[in-house]
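Ticket #4471: structure output looks truncated?

Reporter: J.K.
Steps to reproduce: submitted the chain below (119 residues) through the standard prediction queue, then opened the result file.
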Amino acid sequence: QVQLVESGGGLVQPGGSLRLSCAASGFTFSNYAMSWYRQAPGKERELVAGITSGGGRLNYADSVKGRFTISRDNAKSTVYLQMNSLKPEDTAVYYCNANVFGVRRLDYWGQGTQVTVSL
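Returned output as attached by the reporter:
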């Protein structure tokens, strides 16, 4: 069965850093693009960062560009999100996503992990 298992979330002070990890199993990880999304209370889910299946192309939301870095290790079937210079507005539930573009049924989600940026 497909599983995406996230770790690394928690409480951090403004200006601090966190590294999220998402470990994948049950599918051929290297065939899938990977993304991180987030959703804050009362707001729509938004794409934070994405990376192509081979790691050759990256994209970021304007709000996190220059602060966050997405990466993947296909040998470990794991995708990461390094988050630096965190702000209170980064507080949200962060979700890991795996997908093949244009193939609707090949679209998987993790359970989500809470990131809270506060004093």
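Triage note (M.O.): checked the attachment and the full token line is present. The longest strand covers residues 18-25.
Status: closed, working as intended.
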